Amino acid sequence: MVLWGVLLAVQVLRFSGAVELPAGSCAFEDGTCGYESLFTYLPWILNEEGHYIYMDTSFATQGEKAVLLSPELQAEEWSCIRLVYQITTSSETSSDPSRLNLYVRFEGENFDRLLWSAKEPSDSWLIASLDLRNSTKKFQILVEGVLGLGTTAGIAVFEIKMTTGYCIECDFEENHLCGFMNRWNPNVNWFVGGGNIRNLHSVLPEDHTLKSEFGHFMYVDSVYVKHFQEVAQLVSPRTTAPMSGCLSFYYQLQQENDNVFTLYTRDVTGLYEEIWKTKSTESTDWNLAEVDFSAPYPMEVIFEVAFNGAKGGFVALDDISFSPVHCQSQTGFSFSAKEASCNFEDDLCNFYQDKDGPGWNRVKLKPNVYRAGDHTTGLGYFLLANTKFTSQPGYIGRLYGPSLPGNLQYCLRFYYALHGFFKMSDTLAVYIFEENHVVQEKIWSVLESPRGVWTQAEITFKKPMPCKVVFMSWCKSFWDCGLVALDDITVSLGNCRSTDSLPPPPGQCTFEQDECSFTQERRNRSSWHRKRGETPTSYTGPKGDHTTGVGYYMYIEASNMVYGQKARLASKSLRGVSGKHCLTFFYHMYGAGTGLLNVYLKMEGYSGETLLWRRRGEQSISWLRGLIEYNCEKQHQVIFEAIRGMSIRSDIAIDDVTLLAGPCTEIEDAAQQSSGFSEDLNEIEY
Ligand SMILES: [Ca+2]
Ligand SMILES: [Ca+2]
Ligand SMILES: [Ca+2]
């Protein structure tokens, strides 16, 4: 039995006024408030003296779990779950530490969403703040403890509290400070001001919430400043759900010339962005600040005060709140990712060209050895520039994107493929045009890249003015002109690097980091392999993956297998739902001897499997999209089975698998599959 650390810390962190807690909350005083320990796992045990619940690890081994399931809940308003917990361990470092995970299980979804995970051991209770989007769906909270290496580890939960509102909001009236943390600095720090802490000689103000000496706020004082520009940082809890709107707070400054009060956002990679700074004209009373705040992925807000010396006075902060609409000071139009993006399947969306002749053509081509199909489905439309038809030396094709609001950070992603140039560099470039077309700036241009492979480009940019993205293709000389293809342009909020560093959403796998939760019964030369680049045998297999063109995919290597040999890749176990599931994936079946690709459904507790989908023989030199809707109300797995064909030219690959509950948003074009481009094809000469 592990002794739970510091009782003082317990006193400090216990939420005040916990007489009648909101649904989903529990202080583990006399019971578990409807939370149940699942019998198939290790038990959670209520410690009635200490008023917490802990995972019983007495006879447990590494990897074993304890799962605590909440009663059915609903949150029609945005909510914040605050969890007070502790992980203890006897070993200092471990390659496989114990973890505490919190999942949300929404009704009608086939997987649990991991909202938060912790593995850092501590001597005292810690607080985690987790945002939960408003939804009409019922849900349950799962608290999962997983025992790591070194079985003396202990995991305990002291309190779970669910309240309406955003986790980033705080009036600093409660002891837990809403999970806001001062980053310790020897000389300048944020402290709680007001209430009992107030003394007679204090120059500090009354708080803003209660407008009385009993209220609390945060403040930072310059009296102990020793170094020039020493900073104090107050760090908010990290957001766990995408949000965008207006962040407001009240602040007071004294002797504003000697201090700088700045607001930053910081993402999981540690990237800072300044979003607000004090102006020179401030009143000495509480000032209201309103800042546009967009967190498309997990982000912290940092309130930073820098002092130039000991005479910088103080900065006080109170009543941080958030509203999901833009601040009033911001006029103009809002950003829509859907309207700024295009896959060119139906038209040019909101993209357009110069009046003086179309440089870019929207085409659909039958893929062959010399040219690929589109990126979206392998059989759809994309844009093509510089065909012999339109090209002439010095020719430039311009494609303009829709207007984007200024002052926001964007991530632009698109796919391009180049054919036929001797020298590729600069044949495709991306410019930013400011609204009036006076200022233009080149933000990207192509370097040498693999020929004929759909390659992803990613560009992060931010401009003060509304602007447009412009794609330009060049044909510099008659003797060196080729084709430039463009597809699947997306624009989203935030930095590309930040979204890249996030773990993939559950149910999705790009195979970029690993094989996700896919498993194989056996692993040898004739099973599925994770690979990057071309496969070793020519005239079979892909040249690059589907995700980025230079990433990883899974494939069978026909030269390691015999005719008819099978390789099976199984998904993780998915929960059954009433209604449909949608499975999408990309498959590559190119080569004269190609065998079969089967997709099976295997229900837990049943020996048989149901065939959901099959392709036999060579399909295309391009990645094609597979789309399967199926019904299954029981726990199940999906299995990809590749069977080696007649010759060594029978590599089969898959990539970008998505398993979701609910019907597919798109429908597979059956006519297109069977007729194989009988009509509607562009004959492009080049
Ligand atoms: Ca207050
Ligand atoms: Ca397309
Ligand atoms: Ca991939």
From TrEMBL:
Highest taxon listed in the record's lineage: Eukaryota
One Pfam family recorded for the sequence: MAM
Domain MAM: 24-169, 168-329, 340-498, 507-666
TM annotation in the entry: none
GO annotations of cellular component type: endoplasmic reticulum; membrane
Keywords: Signal
KW Iron (keyword) present: no
Stretches for region Disordered: 520-542
Family annotation (PROSITE patterns): MAM_1, MAM_2
UniProt key word Signal: yes
Protein name listed in UniProt: MAM domain containing 2
Lineage of producing organism: Eukaryota, Metazoa, Chordata, Craniata, Vertebrata
Gene transcribed to yield this protein: MAMDC2
